[in-house]
Structure formats: structure tokens, C-alpha cells
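User: ok so my PI wants both of these folded by tonight, can you help

Assistant: No problem, let's get them done. Here's the first:
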Amino acid sequence: MANLPPQNRAYLGKIGKERIPNSYEEACRSKVWVEAMKEEMRSMKENHTWDMMRLPKGKKPVGCRWVFTIKYKSSGEIERYKARLVAKGYTQVYGEDYTETFAPVAKLHSVRILLSIAVNLSWDLWQMDVKNAFLQGELEEEVYMASPPGYGHEAGKVCRLRKAIYGLKQSPRAWYHKLTTCLSKKGFKMSEADHTLFTHKGPTGIVAVLIYVDDLIITGDDIEGVTSLKKNLKESFDIKDLGELKYFLGIEMTRFEDGLFISQRKYVLDLPTETGKLGSRPAKTPIEEGYQDHGEGELFEDVKQYQRLVGKLIYLTITRPDLCFAVNQVSQHMKSPTVYHWNMVERILRYPKGNPGKGVWMEKRNDTSIIGYCDADYAGDKKDRKSTTGFCTFVGGNLVTWRSKKQKVVSLSSAESEYRAMRDVTKELVWIKYLLRDLGVQGKEPITLYCDNQAALHIASNPVFHERTKHVEIDCHFVREKIQDGTISTRFVRSEDQVADIFTKATTSLVGDYIQNKIGLLDLHQPVLRGSVEPSDVMRISLLDQGEERLSTAGMAAGMSTARMSTAGMAARMSTARMSTAAMAARMSTARMSTAGMAASMSTARMSTAGLNMAGFAEKLTLKEWREVFLAKFPQLSSGASGKIISRYDLESDICD
């Protein structure tokens, strides 16, 4: 956690240490939880949630239970112990005590897109939480509920619900209708691309609100509009302003001057505890290279456990695209998994143990362009010979959506499978365009779509190869239509630069690390210099969790406890990375150095470090001069500002010893 600001380190260090009870009986053993239940009952009474009455003949009451959680402040301190009374909605009967139930929630894709836009346009991000949100919604149906555990009433009487209590099937719909009606009255307009996104465009700017049940993300450049919105919401609901957005749906968000980092570190650290794998060794990759599904084999007995853990892994892919392909593979066997599939799940669980803080870095580039990459693994499934589609999209240069999906039909050629992948990503790109339009953001057109298959690109641009493509579904030609109307523009990309490759197949750790660097997937908790890694780079230095360095080079073994580097017959084994060129020696214990094209017999220093290029330096360059050049390139390293992803690293001692 070395690179995190102090407030974020404190937050992550405190959350998750309190035990949460699983039942009413367990909660009664603690005064704080007893008081939390009393507070919930007071809220129920104040909102006139129900009336006590005898159960009418022919009616069946739904059950209820207590659910407990802990609310945290942005500092990591406990805000309050929360006890929530929920109805057992699964006992409701359609047509009797409920009808319509649908209520939208914010798409996680929309959340990431909104974050990228906010970062690029320097919009602040705020969060608000509605207290007892579902109790704000009015019930239209006649619903009866049994008395809450521990709060019995007169015998024979039940609760006739007036408000949409948590747990009822129609509760989300009732609350969504209440909130959206309020926003509409304030002049907010619902997005056609995402019905949980509301925007208000005024003379001084725009205000955007994204809704996920009772959690709201607010952003925009109209500060007065944001202030007015918060005031109106507080007048209409019992709502709390949580301040700067830091923790949303289990996603940790850290804002810097030059970007935003999102991860699920706490979620990753909790997984081994839940699965009993605390002592297991981390895996180098989420899935073995050259993986082939073993359809036959001994069936795994605990299917529910398999389904539960795969579900947790699916949620982890919100900020871990490197898990996407592996999770896609195991999720195809939810009904009848084998022991082999269970072993795959265990391997995937071990992979993030080695880098729990890894997440998506969103950099401020003052850019709103949209870019897409698509790829396909032709006939990759050896059982049914179906291909796998993989794609990812970028907004403002930041990764916002990704997907790994098995194609529904068998493709007759690699071009056909790639063409189907182009169709899927084109639909995603068009949707993103509509979402940005609703946010008042004009992206550059045409949208660039990269593909590494020339034949597929020709099919998309021209009605060629009719005999080979006449059987392809009509919807695939949606791509051609969008090219013709100028919405997208296709470009060829070399296979080695195809970042969507990790969503279609199991790759080596070297290829996986290279692509992850390109798409902005990094571990903020490891103190390394951020910089682009090019295919021509000879080496890459990364830090292990325990602070040691591992040097990976083409032809040099990775996994050493210390960095080993050999140049022109010089071999040195050191506890920290040390490079000596002629009379210059610079010891860097934490910096990641990329040296591209470094000749074994060079007489002058040539180094490329996150864009730092130095060539032709005299052999008599002093350490003081070296330090001045380095800090001139990276002034933030000497600023001492904790809000930078590149921290100081004690350059006084590390570089200039």
C-alpha cells in the first residue's frame, strides 16, 4: 500500500476487522447489534411501515429475518452498525401479493465509463446513500408479513405492510419509481442508454446522477447544480452525503491529481478466508497455458459451493479483466462441474493472492475518444469446435468494458469467427456512443475498431467472399452498416499488439503481463514507476509483495529473489537492482526500469524508463548530475505529494547513495 495516500491506507487497514453476526440469536450477544435492531424498529415506526391487524382468511403472511452489516466512513472508521429487517420475498405468490417487479440498476460498464469521463474532464465525484430507501416507496398490493423476530406482538396479529420493505419482490421497483419521479421534477432527464443515469444540462454545465438502488454517484462540472441537487435530495429523503467517492459496491476508488485507481483489494483478501486457502501458494496465471476443457471426469459433489465461488469470481472481474477468460471457462459448467473444473476454480482463486491490489488505472488525458479491440479464438473449444469472442473498449484512453464469451454457433473459418467478434464489439461501441451523448460528451468520430484479421476487415468493408459468407447471420452485417454510415472505422492491428487476446485464450505470464501493462491494469500497492512497456523492451523489473525484486528478461529466468543482470560478461547478484555503465552507478530499490536496445558493449548510458530517454551521456557523468536529470524528467518524485501514483521512493538514498 506504499503508493496510497494516508487516508486510503487507513481505510483499507480498518475495514473488515469487525465480525458480523449471521443470525438474530448471535446479534443478541452484543449490545451494539441490539441497539442497531432497536434503531431499525424506530425507523419502521417513524415511517409507518405497517399496521398491526389480524390475518384475513385465505391470506398467507410472508416471513422476515434480520440482516446485519457495518457502514464505514471514508477514513475507515466505523460509521454505524446496521441491522436491517427484510421480508422473505421468496414466499410471495405472483398475482396475489405482487405483479410487476422489474427495476433497473446501474450497469457496471456505465460506472466505469462515468469514472473515465470524470477523470478526463476533471469532474469531482461524490457519493450519497439513502437511509432505509425501500421504506420510501409506497406499496400498491395487499401484503402481510409475520412479526419480526424478537419483537412479537399480540397473538394472531400480523403486519399489514404499507411501505415496500426490503426483501419484497416489488420493493426495488417502488423505490426506483419514487426516486426517478423526484429527479424528473427537478429537471433531470433519464438516459436512453442506461435508465439509471440522469442528467441535468444547465447554462453553467451538467450534473449527472447514477443510481444503484440506494447508492448514488454524483458528478459534473456544474458545482452550483450539484449543491442544489444535494439540498433537494436531503429535503425529499433521509439521505446522507458521504463526500468524495471512495468505496462503491465493494470497489475501492482512489483519486489522484493525474487519474483514478479502482480495485477490489479487500474483496480479494477476503476470498482465501472464505475458501480456507489462506496457506496456498499464489498461481502465476489464472489458467494454465494451452488449456483444453476436459468434458469427461469425476463429477464434483458440492455443486452449490462451486456455483457460489464462481459467482464471487464473476464479481471480481469488475476490476480484474485478467481473470475474464478463466472465469468464462469455469462458468460454463455451473450445472455439472467435474473435479477438474473445481481444480480450475481453486487455481483462479490462488492467482489474485499474488497481487491483491491489482486494478484498473484511469489516467487523465483530456480525451473523450472511443476505441475498441476485438479478437476470436477460432474453434478453440475442442468438444464442439465453437470459437470464443473477446473484446475490450476504451474511453478517453482508459479501459472501461471487456468481455469473454463463447460464440453460439460454429464458424467455418477464422475470418468468420473474427467477424462475429467485430459484431459484438460494434454493438458495445455504439451503446457507449449513446451513453456519452446523454452525458453531453461528444466523442471523436468515427470510432476506431482494431482487428488482427485482414479477411474479416475486408468482409466488413466490402461484400466480398459471397460464397464463404452468405450463410452468416444478417446481424453480423450490422458492422458493415456502421462502417458505411461513418460510425466506426476499422483498422488492422498486429497480433502481438492485439490487447483483446487475453479474453480469448490462456496466455503465458509474460504475454499476460505485457497486455495488462498496455490496458492499464496495475498493482498500485506495489511501489513501481508507471510507464508503457514496449515489445522491444529487453527487461522488466517488478516488485514482489515482500519488497524484493524480480527481473524478467527474454532468455533470463524470472522468479529470482533478487535482481540479476548480465551485460557484456558482467554478472552481478544484488539485493536491489544495480546498473553500472562506465563510471555511472545508480541504485534504485523501487523503480521499474525499461531498457530497450541496450547493447552489451555500449560505452554510454542508454535507458528508457517510463518515457525517460537518455543517450550519449559522457562517461564522467556524476551522480549529482544523474539525479538532476532524473528529477527534471519526473518533478513529481521530488514534490513529496502523497497524491501521486509515483511516490518519492527516498531518491536521496536510493538513487544517489
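One down. Here's the second:
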Amino acid sequence: MKFLNLILLTFILFSSGLSLAEELRFDDLFVLSEAERSAYTVDSIKKLDQESLDILYAQLEAGALPNADYSGTVIFDSSESNEIERILAIISPTGFLETLIKKLGVSLWKKKIFDAANRSMTNRILLLKQYPAHMYCGISLVDTRRESIILDYNFADSLPSYVPLVDWAMGRTGLAVRDEIRMVRPGLYLGRAYLRGTFALNFVLEQKGFKETKDSWTNFCTND
């Protein structure tokens, strides 16, 4: 049955011309079991190509709001349809901007500190906490069937930890970064980052030593 599902997924993808995540509308058919989701690790996700990452993301739900320090791993889109690379190649034919953005990406998505009570997140870069963002439940930019957890830098200037001299760069007057994440399993999230509405990269967030409880799989993101 699973093999037939994958054939159907492939047919939808290549017959429509749209990405699979945009076309998926069959929640019950393509949902992953807890056992299947538990099998994923950071290393196994890193090996997936962009199409497979899109499929996995579309099969996930938001899950619970993270509330701890998470380590991040960046996975750049290596497909030929990478819009960010195309734009950067036009602006900077030498590849300087692409290299700069990738270095920034590795730094910015390396460590994130979540505060669920205050619905906020801050990045740790070296020893500094920088680039805060609001955290809330919202509609995904790639898959509107279900909510994702949104990390929104655009109006972070309303957060107490916001430092205008530095943090403006990720906000609405800078790169206008917007992340969205979904839970693979408790303690592990798959994310997508957007710069001014354009998809830029994938990332995985993991809380080392996460201790599961009986509610870990059933807590879902809400804006209450």
C-alpha cells in the first residue's frame, strides 16, 4: 500500500507541474505513523533531496510549541528550481552574495532558544543572543492544509530583547525572515526559511536529550 501511495505522489507531482507539497490534499492517506516519524534522525533527514523534504514536510503537523534550546542543522535546496540561488546569481554573478547568505544561514539556524510562555524565540550566535522572533501558529506558505509553527522576525521590534542596531537586518526593513516548522517527532522539527517571501533553505531543529511524556505526541500548537 505504501508503495502505491508513493506512485500516486509521484504522478501528482509530475502531472501537475506543481510541487508535491502544494498538491497534497489527502491527509488520511499520507499521514505518517508515530513509528515512522520516530525513525527519523537529523542525519537521515539531511540525506533527503528537496522533493523528499517537501513530501515529508507535507506529511507532518505543527506539534507542540518548542520550549528549550534547540540545535539547528541547515539543509540548502540543491534543486535546479532554487529561486534564491537564481536571484543571487543575477545580482552577484561572482557568487559572493550566495556564499555570504549560506554562511549567514549556517550561523542563524545553528542554535535557537524557544520561550513558549512568551511566544518568542531568539537565536544564539557564538555567545550572543540575537535576532528575536515572534512565535505563533499560522498557515504554511507551502502547504495550506494545516498550520505550522511560525517564527516571524518582521515585527520583532516589539519584543523586549530587540536591539535595533543589529536585529533590524532580519526584520521587515531587512531580509524579512519568516521560518515555519513542523514536528517530526517530539524533540525534532523540520523547518523552512523564507527571505522576503521566497523559499531559501530547509533546517532541522533538535533538542538533545528530549524526555518524552504521554502528551508529547498529542500537544498541538494553538494561539490560546
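The beta strands are 69-76, 111-115, 120-125, 128-139, 147-152, 177-185, 188-195, 198-206. Residues 2-206 form one domain. Good luck tonight!
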